[in-house]
Amino acid sequence: MVKNFFLKSDKSPKNIQIKKDIITHFITSGNDTIAELAKELDLSVPTVTKFIAELTDQGLIDEFGKIHTAGGRHPSVYGLKPSSAYFLGVDMTRHHLNIALMDFTGNIVSNEMGINYIYQNTTESFDELCDHIQNFIDKTGDLKQKIVNINLNISGRVNPESGYSYSSFYFSEHPVSETLTNKLNYRVGIDNDTRAMAYGEYMKGVVDGEQNVIFVNVSWGLGIGIIIEGKPYYGKSGFSGEFGHFPTFDNEILCHCGKKGCLETEASGLAIHRMILDRVAKGESTILTEMVENINTLTLTDIIKATNMEDPLCIEIMEEVGYKLGKYIAGLINIFNPDLVVIGGQVADAEGFIMLPIRSAIRKYSLNLVNKDTRVVASKLKNKAGIIGACMIARSRVFTE
């Protein structure tokens, strides 16, 4: 797909790389003049002028007016042409799908949130996933001709480089990304859902210039996405961020990973759900018994709603879980000394009920000299962090490979 972008005018690997560097600069820094671009990329102005002209002829870059200066010629400002390419992001959660289409400049032009889809690790569920993606693509009309890349977020252990997911749809010797590419007839990549959320928040969310960021995804499970010097940290095989499986508690609760005592067993949406059901079974009162007909069909969404309605039982459990989580986030702060910690995922929708105990535990357990410059904030993108991150990864992958 990169070749389709650049081989129209040049087959030189060096020239293709320069064009990719120029586009990457516009992606990360926004519009700029040729002089500033040449300075940033350590190239001569004539060289940059040549490539800007070629990229403009290819329809990838536009001129966006001139900068008015005190004297002399007014330099032109260039940037990405929004309609020249589109990228599709798919965020797969436990109970639904979110899908979005993003233009070249990073603006979401269409999206569908909360598509009814129950994930199961079966070929039938995989085929249903493909059908939903294809239906969304078909609705984009003529824009589907300009879709360059697709990224699917998958929870658990994902190797984006090889295209294998070892937690979901691992029932073929072929990488899941390859199977998706063949089914959809578009280039498709995969990435870990929490890492995608972190990147989405970094590019379009609450991050404001910070380069070292930890995103904590507190949803049904628990994971972290790590941004170091402005780039997602993958680890050797793409498996970084398995915070929820840190061996923490001396309990007999079996985690879905097959081990006991994982942090996720007592500090996650799954843990909150289990605790609520246990306490209700013991006869404790909660408005949840009025909100849902059958308590056994209780969802995390129901619990978050009841918490924000100030249900005492839900608040008590939310605070307990938040404090436990904050204690171990304090450990992350001690290790990484990040600029920013972002709390996201569905449980973060409980807002102050989860954020206050997290912050309280961080203050108690992290080193003062380490945490004094670290801000702890809630996600700005909320439930759209995943699809925005997926779109951003789909775009960045084209120009970084």
Provide a descriptive summary of the structure in words.
There is one protein chain. With 401 residues, this protein is of the alpha/beta class. It has three domains: 2-83, Arc Repressor Mutant, subunit A (Orthogonal Bundle), CATH 1.10.10; 85-198 and 386-400, Nucleotidyltransferase, domain 5; 208-379, ATPase, nucleotide binding domain (Nucleotidyltransferase, domain 5), CATH 3.30.420.40. It has 14 helices and 15 strands. The strands form four sheets. The protein has a five-stranded mixed β-sheet. A five-stranded mixed β-sheet has the order 13-12-11-14-15, covered by helices on one side. Strand 11 (213-218) and strand 12 form a beta hairpin. Helix 3 packs across helix 4, helix 7 packs across helix 14 (385-400) and helix 10 packs across helix 11.
Succession of helices and strands: HHEHHEEEEEHEEEHEHEEEHHHHEHHEH
The secondary-structure class comes to: alpha/beta
Instruction: Give the terminus-to-terminus CA distance.
Output: 11 Å
Biggest sheet descriptor: 5 strands, mixed
State the CATH topology of the largest domain: Nucleotidyltransferase, domain 5
Mean pLDDT: 92
Entry keywords:
Nucleotidyltransferase, domain 5, 401 residues, alpha/beta, five-stranded mixed beta sheet, globular
